[in-house]
Amino acid sequence: MQYIKRLVIIIPVIVGIILLVVMKMNKKPPVRLADQEKVQVVRVMPLSKMTVIPRAMGYGYVQAYRTWQAIPEVSGQVVYMDKNIKKGQFIKKDEVLLRIDTRSYGLAESRGVAEVMSIDAQLNELEQSRKNTEHLLAIEKKSLAIAVQELERKRKLFEKQYISASDLEKEEINVLSRQTTVNNLQNTLNLIPTQKKALMAQKKSGESSVAERQLDVSKTEIRAPFDGRISQVNIERFQFAPAGTVLLAAESLERVEIPVQLSPREFFKLMPKDAKETMGLVPDIETIRRAMGITAKVRLPLEETHHIEWEGQFSRTGESIDPNTGTLTFFVTVENPYANLVLGKKPPLVTNMYVEVMLSGRPLTNRFVVPRSAVHNNQIYICREDNRLDIRKVNLELIMEDLAVLDNGNNTVVKDGEMLVLSDLVPAIQGMKLKPLEDKEKVRQVNRRAAGGSI
């Protein structure tokens, strides 16, 4: 029994010793692995010079280019009003919109005409009086001449004592009477021009009064000054319209205007970099527009894939920077906002419509344009011909949306055909091994965006 217990203990020990000897005899030395460099797979695109159009995006509300308010200069009851005069209705130029009762102004005009006719009659009477006076004056002058001759004859007879002194005195009295009559007629004739001037002044005043009454009558009719659309109606037919109150309001249809707010940074993106045209002390807006060379496109975004666009025109800038927002206002106009209207597809540009405006400056030629995401703290990654990473520092001339334009002086830093790394490298180590895969879709996107298109 004890012998069996000893065997149970000894046999496992012997087997373990045998296994240990066998393993030690078959042991191989450790294999040393060779060092292997890690390869990073990256997306790349070839660099090439292209023409890029500087752009800035802004947003604004559509405003009417011209507005008009029907404010009567005369008071009265509205006796005529077109039944289609409602808010939102279209009106035509020179179309009669309202008429105010003309009776009171017509009566005043009739009174003025009667006064002018009365003065005309007095002028005719005065003219006839002048003719009569001239005729009587001529007769009296002849009578005076005869009386003077008779007086001289009687004086000679008196000297010869053929007549008495009383007869001579009677003849002298006759001459004096004739002379007085001539003087009175001459004075009457001399006063006629002054009387005529007074009557002419009265007539002119009366004619002015008649013209004023006629003007009042013309002011009782309100016509549309342009083709437009009614935006406000504050009167109804048979209501009294006080002078100086707004009865109607309308907006023109020939164009609309969109004010767009841009920051100074966005503003200077659009400025030409090689402008040579100088401004005067007080430049006109056309000179400024020509120097800036900005074009505009207005877009109504409805869906991600469906946009409605209008060609716009940069018209002017605001006179100052907004102190609240620190932005400058650009005004963009769109001609004929109701033209080419297609129901369900292309609506008109109406007041207070919220739109986005793309402002484009003059094209910049021979520029390297890269995705904005490929610039890391003013550094770009280049995949060299040996597929090694080269980190280069660059200066940026322009950043717009998702693109970055390298400064023209960077032509010595990068060259045509070099591969730009698009992928983020964390960490990015100079000379690290890369496996480039060209992203052709990104190349097409950059080219479209640089030329002014959308992705």
CATH class of the largest domain: Mainly Alpha
Rg from Cα: 53 Å
CATH topology of the largest domain: Helix Hairpins
Shape assignment = rod-shaped
Identify the notable features of this structure and list them briefly.
single chain; 455 residues; alpha+beta; conserved putative lor/sdh protein from methanococcus maripaludis s2 fold; Helix Hairpins; 5-stranded mixed β-sheet; 6 helices; 24 strands
Task: Give a verbal description of the structure.
The protein has 455 residues and is of the alpha+beta class. The protein folds into 4 domains: 42-52 and 364-450, conserved putative lor/sdh protein from methanococcus maripaludis s2 fold (Beta Barrel); 66-101 and 221-251, OB fold (Dihydrolipoamide Acetyltransferase, E2P); 104-219, Helix Hairpins; 254-360, Beta Barrel (Elongation Factor Tu (Ef-tu), domain 3), CATH 2.40.30. 36% of the residues lie in helices and 28% in strands. It contains 6 helices and 24 strands. The chain has helices spanning 2-26, 103-159, 165-219, 264-269, 285-292, 440-450, and strands spanning 40-46, 49-52, 55-61, 63-64, 67-70, 76-81, 90-91, 96-100, 221-223, 228-233, 240-241, 248-252, 255-262, 295-301, 307-317, 328-335, 354-360, 364-371, 379-383, 389-393, 396-400, 403-406, 419-421, 434-438. It has a 7-stranded antiparallel β-sheet with strand order 3-17-14-15-16-13-4. The protein is rod-shaped, with a radius of gyration of 53 Å. The two termini are 94 Å apart.
